[in-house]
Design a protein that fits this description.
Oligomer: heterodimer
Helix content of chain A: 25-40%
Structural class of chain A: alpha/beta
Strand order of the largest sheet of chain A: 6-9-10-3-11-12
Largest interface: A-B, 64 and 47 residues
Order of helices and strands of chain B: HHHHHHHHHHHHHHHHHHH
CATH topology of the largest domain in chain A: Rossmann fold
Largest sheet of chain B: none
Radius of gyration of chain A: 25 Å
CATH class of one domain in chain B: Mainly Alpha
Number of helices of chain B: 19
Strand content of chain B: under 5%
Number of strands of chain A: 24
Distance between the termini of chain B: 15 Å
Helix content of chain B: over 70%
Number of domains of chain A: 3
Shape of chain B: globular
Number of helices of chain A: 18
CATH class of the largest domain in chain A: Alpha Beta
Strand content of chain A: 25-35%
Structural class of chain B: mainly alpha
CATH architecture of one domain in chain B: Orthogonal Bundle
CATH superfamily of the largest domain in chain A: P-loop containing nucleotide triphosphate hydrolases
CATH architecture of the largest domain in chain A: 3-Layer(aba) Sandwich
Shape of chain A: globular
Distance between the termini of chain A: 52 Å
Largest sheet of chain A: 6 strands, mixed
């Protein structure tokens, strides 16, 4: 029997980038194939070729032995290929049923929508594959995990046999990940075939039947979880040995640098997103804030850095009250901010690397004198920092948009870390970065800590928080549920807290 | 929105997605090649299409082509002559007749009398005179675009600048030129500052969109001018014209009659240089560009966005106001109803054509000045209607605003091009 899906020699180039270089891939019936690779390795391009979003420059696609060409997502769906997107494509104010039928509406008498028929089929699908969802709920009222289940149902409703999951675990709590894996196994048991895109090694090890590793647009190898280890996979991904663990000495906390008392902050919809949070960060320690994205972390960081108005409560940085201070005052008080969304907040993409390296100090000596900027000083400082922080760039005068994500983040790190700072607020400092860059940025953060800087690290990546922090706070729905020393934190304990289960309840459940 | 995210995600890995607004992307292009090559090809293409329009609107040519089978040579030669005459007279109208200029130059060298030369260069001088308000207003709009602010209010700011300058020009007498002229210029600048800063303030404070508010400010300016001309500032005889300004407030002619080009042109070039220096060489200019390119990052970097928005609009208004001042002090010496014939609106096109760069705006303004300057002669000598020039101007703008047309026409490779199907991804699972 031919494989369900076969790609032969698929090549896709973008100007200046060889995104996919003669890639061969086979997917057998009832198999989970993990596609592993760093960001920029070409995973998503390959899947977009398969899903009809890009047309390949070269190569052939076979489905059940038959040669096909896929022009559009519509086409892909007809051929039984379905994609579960990382960013959900759902209409929040529609019900589950309406979302599922959108684009393939069932009608009564040709004009009236027939929701009942669709809802019935959703119940069937949901029972068959263990996808717990109520068809009549509005999507905006569902949890992230449930929204993902709706996405999966959408694909199954369109009778897809080949399912592509694009980084499906990025937005889930550890428990939701476990639930997802159960669903995935039941899909495979019932004959569906799966491609699972990820850059998380532990997931690959636990779910995949076969692992394909991509690097720089090339297939570097195929292996199985039995043959591979996390370290060997990381090595395949990056092309060299990688230190997965951060080496660090015990922290030596001294005076309090950041003090937060009863902080309340509203989000863009004027709802309370941070609800009475209190904590402190001392010089020489890393306080990690764990939590699923969207539980008030963004608003907390924005309030601390002056980008968002504080509703009530107090923030002090090295003894100065900065509750109502402007971003510039806070920066000048000796605090640095690595923003969550580097493209939105951290960089002006069209400006040069040099300009971005002085993005918040351009007005100070020596970069400005009187009315005029001092380009020689700016360029000199830029060359030094590029050298010192190993930013890979052809020159300091190219727009920062020309750099890869990892190097863009290094520009931000270079800018923030090379100032004399007492407080570092790092929000998802390694989001979307490759393993090599992550390793580098982690080392730099610990180095800052050891220099006596207070570090507040906010990240939804549990691994990151656990490996870097000296103390860990867990946020859930705008509150800090617990702050514990890192030694006492386990994955399970943090995971339950992230899902909003308090310790007392945990203990009760244990009994 | 969310449907676009999928293909964009891929770009994030190779080249980060564009986070700039659509207008920013159109008006402040990033690729230097497309910023220079596209306008040049756009002008060329517009002239070619203009030629076709000239031909089909000339009855003699149509008749000649009807008889193409019997007299093919005549049809072809008439076609060639028609186009050649039209564009040659356009050229003469814009720059002057080459033969006259050479003769005038020889006379000047021989006898030291420059009158013939000045007479020969008069068309050139006229073109520069027309270009001058274009440069000022175009710089104003371009400066706004650098800060991602769409100042549609240039026309109103021109009127207000003109009113302020003309008032200072005629109501004060007895001042020496060295004081009176700067005072009149300053009045125009300040009036423009106020007229630009109001929509800027409204945006910074309440989030009201500057496009709406600058349009509204235009109407206020137009009607205010009408009101002032109908009474308070009208000439004693009651005509809707202001009294003439005192010669001490004139922008002096550069070369003397009959060449009308005046010091305003030099001021405009100076303004272009100052705008360039300000935007690219000063911290405040950097803040304007940062805010324009990425408001969030500017806020993160500690820029006070509200201050920058008000400042950008104020400066944009000041430059546009100077366009009005320039007309009043340099050309008309009084203010009449509708004294600006759409300079403010044309200036939006100029900013686009000049890629919102001060030097680009100067070149674009010169081009429009020459086209407009030459149009009158083209009409009177070659019998081609002036409107053709308007059509050509319009075509240039269309081609610059939709560079894909030019790129596909001339097979230019788009450096930034990503997947060809990105646009068709509305189809969803």
């Amino acid at each position: 029997m031919p494989p369900v899906l076969e790609l032969r020699g698929v090549t896709k180039t973008f100007p200046g980038v060889l995104a996919n270089d003669h890639i061969d891939l086979t997917l057998n019936e009832g198999e989970i194939l993990a596609l592993l690779g760093e960001n920029g390795a070409g995973k998503t391009t390959l899947m977009n070729v398969l899903y009809g979003l890009y047309s390949p420059d070269e190569g052939e696609i076979f489905i059940r032995g038959e040669k096909v060409s896929i022009h559009s997502p519509h086409n892909a769906i007809d051929l039984g290929v379905g994609m579960v997107h990382q960013h959900f494509m759902l209409v929040p104010v529609f019900t589950v049923t309406e979302n599922v039928m959108l684009g393939v509406e069932s009608t009564k008498a040709g004009v009236f929508l027939d929701r009942a028929v669709v809802a019935e089929r959703i119940r069937e699908i949901s029972k068959r594959f263990g996808l717990k969802v109520d068809p009549d709920t509005r999507v905006e009222d569902l949890s992230v995990g449930a929204q993902q289940r709706v996405e999966i149902i959408k694909v199954l409703y369109r009778e897809a046999n080949i399912l592509i999951f694009d980084e499906p675990t990025a937005v889930l709590t550890p428990q939701e990940v476990d639930d997802l894996f159960v669903v995935i196994r039941s899909l495979v048991e019932q004959g569906k075939s799966l491609i699972f895109i990820t850059h998380k090694l532990n997931e690959v090890m636990s779910i995949a039947d076969r692992i394909m590793v991509l690097r720089n647009g090339k297939m570097v190898g195929t292996t199985t979880p039995e043959q591979a280890t996390e370290a060997s996979l990381a090595c395949m991904m990056v092309g060299r040995e990688v230190l997965l663990e951060v080496e660090k000495k015990p922290a030596q906390p001294s005076e309090v640098v950041l003090q937060v008392r009863d902080l309340c902050v509203r989000d863009d919809r004027h709802l309370l997103a941070v609800k009475g949070v209190s904590f402190q960060v001392k010089a020489g320690e890393v306080l990690g804030v764990a939590g699923v994205q969207g539980n008030g972390q963004t608003e907390l960081v924005e309030a601390l850095t002056g980008l968002r108005k504080v509703e009530s409560g107090q923030v002090t940085i090295v003894g100065h009250d900065t509750t109502t201070a402007s971003p510039r005052e806070i920066t000048e008080s000796g605090s640095a901010h690595v923003p969550e969304d580097r493209l939105r907040d951290g960089l002006v993409l069209t400006l040069s690397v040099a300009d971005n390296l002085v993005l918040n100090t351009y007005y100070q000596a020596p970069f400005s004198k009187g009315m005029a900027l001092q380009p020689e000083e700016i360029n000199k400082a830029a060359r030094e920092r590029v050298e010192q922080f190993d930013v890979r760039t052809p020159s300091t005068s190219v727009p920062v948009s020309n750099l890869s994500g990892g190097n863009q983040q290094k520009v931000i790190v270079a800018r923030e870390f090379s100032r004399p700072i007492k407080l570092l607020i790092a929000s998802q400092p390694t989001r979307g970065l490759d393993v090599g860059s992550i390793e580098y940025i982690h080392r730099r953060i610990i180095q800052k800590r050891d220099e006596g800087c207070a570090v507040l690290l906010v990240s939804p990546e549990l691994e990151e928080v656990m490996s870097l922090s000296d103390r860990i706070a867990v946020v859930f729905e705008g509150k800090i549920l617990d702050i514990m020393p890192a030694e006492q934190a386990t994955r399970e304990k943090l995971g339950l807290l992230m899902a909003g289960v308090q310790e007392s309840v945990q203990e009760a459940a244990a009994v | 929105m969310s449907q676009e995210e999928q293909p964009l995600k891929e770009k994030q890995e190779e080249a980060p997605p564009e986070r700039r607004s659509l207008l920013q992307r159109i008006f402040v292009r990033r690729s230097r090649r497309s910023a220079i090559l596209v306008p040049i090809l756009a002008v060329f293409t517009a002239l070619v299409i203009g030629a076709v329009i000239i031909l089909i609107s000339t009855p003699a040519v149509i008749t000649a082509w009807r008889n193409f089978l019997s007299a093919p040579g005549e049809a072809l030669s008439l076609t060639w002559i028609t186009v050649r005459d039209a564009y040659f007279t356009l050229f003469q109208g814009a720059f002057g007749s080459p033969a006259d200029i050479v003769a005038g130059f020889q006379a000047w060298v021989k006898s030291g009398d420059s009158k013939a030369l000045r007479e020969a260069l008069r068309p050139f001088s006229e073109s520069l005179t027309i270009s001058t308000p274009y440069i000022f207003a175009g710089l104003g709009v371009a400066l706004g675009f650098q800060g991602n602010l769409f100042n549609i209010g240039a026309e109103g700011q021109i009127f207000i600048g003109g009113i302020a300058s003309v008032f200072v020009g005629y109501s004060i007498s007895g001042l020496p030129m060295i004081i009176h002229l700067p005072l009149a210029l300053l009045a125009g600048i300040l009036a423009g500052v106020v007229w630009g800063a109001i929509p800027g303030f409204l945006k910074a404070r309440t989030g009201a969109h500057e496009v709406i508010n600058t349009i509204m400010m235009n109407y206020i300016a137009f009607r205010l001018t009408d009101f002032l001309l109908s009474g308070p500032m009208a000439r004693p005889d009651g005509l809707p014209i202001t009294p003439e300004i005192k010669p001490s407030a004139y922008l002096p002619l550069l070369f003397g009659q009959p060449m009308r080009v005046h010091w305003g042109f030099i001021l405009a070039l100076g303004a272009a240089f100052v705008v360039y220096w300000f935007l690219w060489k000063t911290p405040v200019g950097m803040e304007i560009r940062m805010t324009g390119q990425n408001l969030h990052a500017a806020r993160y970097a500690g820029v006070s966005i509200s201050v920058i928005i008000v400042l950008t609009m104020a400066l944009s208004g000041a430059l546009a106001g100077l366009a009005g001042t320039n007309q009043v002090l340099g050309v008309d010496h009084r203010l009449v109803r509708a004294f600006s014939t759409g300079y403010g609106f044309d200036s939006i096109s100029l900013a686009l054509l000049g890629n919102s760069h001060p030097f680009g705006v100067v070149l674009a303004s010169l081009l429009f000045g020459f086209l407009r300057g030459g149009a009158a002669r083209m009409q009177s000598v070659a019998g081609v209607p002036v409107e053709i020039i308007r059509i050509i101007q319009g075509l240039i703008i269309v081609f610059v605003a939709a560079p894909e047309i030019i790129r596909s026409l001339y097979r230019l490779k788009d450096v930034k091009k990503t997947g060809p199907v990105v646009a068709q991804t509305t189809e969803q699972s």
